[in-house]
Amino acid sequence: MDTGLLIALLNPTIALALGAAFLVLWSYQRHRPYLAALAASYCLSAPGFLLQYFTLPVGIVLTKLISNICFTIAACCLSSAIIARYGRRVPCIGIAVMTGGGLAAFLWFMFVQPDLTWRVLGMNFGFGGLSLLVAAELRPVRNNGPTEKILFALSLLSGLNFTARTLAVVIAHGPFPSYDGFYGSSYWTTALLSHALLSLLIALCLFTAAALDVMRALKAETHTDPLSGILNRRGFEERSTLLLDQCGKAGFPVALVLADLDHFKALNDRYGHEAGDRVIADFAAKLRSATGARAAAGRIGGEEFAVLLPLSDLASARLFAEAIRAFYSAGAIDGLPPGTRVTASFGVAARTGKEGLAPLMRRADEALYKAKKNGRDSVRLSYERPETTFVADPLAVG
Asked: What is the number of H-type helices and E-type strands within the chain?
């Protein structure tokens, strides 16, 4: 096979393979639209590369125009997908300016003032600016993990590849008067090889990011209670142990609040399990909205909940529990008859010294038992019991 043809088919083959791979990923993860954009990007770049080497019956001018339109749309999809993957707002105007400017330069030097060299420079500088725009968007998240660092570096490298490499090759071996011999030039060879390498590296990085997304989702599922939407017992214990360790090292206070829905079994028997599920979900939603991101909130039993509050002493944890108790008992719950009042009891304990999670929960549970025993719909505290050690007085007379 002709070496030039083999090199020309390299990028389309890689692009189609990567596009198909991202399409398969998206078919299993429809909630991640950036995967569909990546699939579209690589699938569109394949005909773009093919039409650089092969000419359609419509003629070389329209063939090159179609090819560069494919490249432009593919670049827009790729940059938007990368930025959206990291939760950043896609800069549509910036993307439109970069790609639109490159395409406008291509059209001008194709139809108004024909010049192949300036067409090459115009398109490459547009794509280079787009790559640097992506790097600028990734800059705030580049320290979040290794994939972010690599993608940030690849975006910068891609920007230099489109601008510095193109300019250097044009200065050294240009200008290009026509397409005759263009596909055997050093510009075309270096462009194909560098784009193939960068496409593979970017795709591998994005595959890794997608795999990490799946792993995080699976971990979240194993640590989340499906009914309440907050942590299950396992997730709560792991998160709380980590928070206790962090607060212990920093010397910050920590408090634990246990909550138990009052007369839940009777409510379940009277109104049905569906109503009981709504009661649990409603209480969990109020708990989640009140705790914020720093605290750990979990459903640790059927109708029992726990909240670990960093930077909170006994007094502030009591205020938190009282606020939740009053807020919850005053609200109505969908699915229950109007006027039906559902309450909860609370036990609060503040950490003593380097106390672990198990003894802290035991003390909070004792306080919760007192709240249940003394009429429910109340908050009870577990006060610190200082340890006393008998020390013999050497001067005492026996």
From this structure: 13, 5
Pairing of strands 304-310, 296-299: antiparallel
One-letter amino acid for residue 212 of the chain: L
Phi, psi of 56 (to 5 degrees): -75, 165
Nearby residues of 228 by Cβ (< 8 Å), 6 or more positions away: 280, 281, 283, 284, 299, 305
What does 319-366 look like in DSSP terms, one character per residue? HHHHHHHHHHHHS--TTSPTT----EEEEEEE--TT--HHHHHHHHHH
- Measured between alpha carbons, how far is 21 from 26 in angstroms, rounded to an integer? 9
Please tell me the pTM assigned to this model. Answer: 0.66
303 is catalytic: yes
Catalytic option among 137, 148, 237, 303? 303
The tokens for 134 are: 């992506």
Residues 21 and 210 sit within 8 Å (Cβ to Cβ): no
Q: Strand 254-261's sheet: what is its strand order? A: 296-299, 304-310, 254-261, 344-350, 379-382
Contact status, residue 313 vs residue 253, Cβ threshold 8 Å:
yes
- Side chain identity at residue 396, one-letter code: A
Q: What is the pLDDT of residues 8-43, one digit of tens each?
A: 688 899 899 999 999 999 998 888 899 999 999 999
Q: How far apart are CA 67 and CA 45, in angstroms?
A: 8
